[in-house]
Amino acid sequence: MADACCGPQEDADHDEAQSLWQVRELQLAAVAAVLLAAGWIVGGSVGTGLELASAVAGAATFVPGAVRDVLKGRVGVGTLMTIAAIGAVALGQYFEAAMLGVLFSIAEGLEHYAIARTRRGLRALLDLVPPTVSVLRDGSEVQVAPGELVLGDLMVLRPGERAATDGVITSGHTSLDLSAITGESVPVEAGPGAVMHAGAINGGGAIEVEVTALASDSSLARVVHLVEEAQDRKGVGQRLADRIARPLVPAIMVLAVLIAGAGAVLGDPLVWLERALVVLVAASPCALAISIPLTVVAAVGAASKQGALVKGGAALEELGRIGTVALDKTGTLTRNHPRVVEVVPAQGVSREDVLAAAAALEARSEHPLAQAILEAAPGHPPAEDVTALPGHGLVSADGRRLGKPGWIDPGELADDVVRLQTAGATVVLVDNGTLLGAIAVRDDLRGEAPQVVDSLRKLGIEPAMLTGDNYRTATALAAKAGISVVHAELLPEDKAALVDRMRDGHKVAMVGDGVNDAPALATADVGIAMGAMGTDVAIETADVALMGEDLRHLPQVLAHARHARRVMVQNVGLSLAIITVLIPLAAFGVLGLATVVFVHELAEVLVILNAIRAARSTFAGRAGVLPLNA
Questions:
Q1: Known active-site residue 328
Q2: Which ranges of the sequence are coiled-coil (predicted)?
Q3: Fold of domain 324-334+447-560
Q4: Over the stretch 366-392, which tens digit does the pLDDT of each residue have?
Q5: Out of 166, 328, 431, 550, which one is annotated catalytic?
């Protein structure tokens, strides 16, 4: 991307530049500008020599790349600039040749600096990992580098210290600050068994953490790597710009040759040769070539630093065109921490018997609903040979069943089931040949959900709820969130089919947990995984992964993508407009080389500065979207 104008460059070289004045192209531009100014002031033969020296200094930014292109059988924009510079010198237009070098070098330097700064900001996430970490080895505490950690090591983290890699807390209680990773400012309480991510700050007491991933394979390192890959993925707009720019360069050279050849027939050959050189500069698609990739790099980098992993230009562009958002209920609109709120036993059955039967069936399940039941009834031995029937429930070898009303007849508890569902609870029934009772589990709505729904509507996006839960429960919860479109009692394949039907001329995003909603996430124009930090499946499969649990990231990243898409359209439009205007003016001699060089490079600088706006833009406050500290 950074080399669109003047041939391949080593990005690493530019990444080392910490300030504008450390960028090689800008250093050459400064030298060339000083020589050019001195030549203009001095005048005469000495001034001509200084102008020529200025042209050579400026050309050093694009001639090497042009030579490499020619040796590889390619013709790039750098080739056009080289021919124009040589032609200007041959015609004695030293001032114009020097001006071309100065302005082109400035534009190239700004482009490389903008990309390097964005990527440095992203890689700075890795600086969250401390240079050393305390580890218990052979009964004593030693300091080691993160790269020396091995699986099973016990890290000792005191208050204020960061985790060097991923692990599981084995002792101690604390609060974890994940703001640098997920963008969430509220600390998370954690104790034994809780996951500790690389870069997280221990905000409470001293804890011991068992290492579960090497530092190079930590969730933080993986996210940085994926974002760097995402920044290089081309979107639809970039492929279109490439299709325009690629044939444009040889076409420009053919046009220049025809114009120069016309001089032999229509008039002074030198005049027409000069016009041909001016056309080479005027029609150079440098600004067009960088218009979209630079914006993508900036926007994806900015999103990642706020806890949203956008998987490349295509995902960014699609995200900016979303008209409908389908939201899964559990874990997206709700907190994903369900609890048993009521147990209704059948006649002659005790509450404890109902919970015991349910706990035995759920003993080996990791489903959130199962965890709620096991918390209410711990210590029961698991049932033998339990089979899960998707969309229905569980059944054991001895005939005990747990599942949704409809699969199990609620019988005498039908009115209680309706009452509980209307109150927003999920109801499961338990039987062993005869009905044992009903268990109501409720997963509370996220506090920010109504605000998020309001923000989506301010963006012109209509939210809809998709859930496998029953219609009464889903409707009750949707009403609290302010969602009017509800699709309930859906199997995973039903969600995927429904997302496909929801398009109706609109781009659809599906927001889910990245695992259970995988078919729908894959079917949607953009799949968005909620709370994906540390979840390999979610990060790898979703088009967009919201690393934290705060739902407010959703409208914020949508608004951010729309802003980035507007910047892309503005940059492409400006680039094409400049080329369209300059070519005829240059071909008919209305504009000279100096003027065309100035306008052409000014357009490139404007494109670069406009693209940087995508990096500087923040999520908070866009289109009525609430900031994260609201």
A1: yes
A2: none
A3: Rossmann fold (3.40.50)
A4: 677 888 899 898 888 888 888 888 778
A5: 328
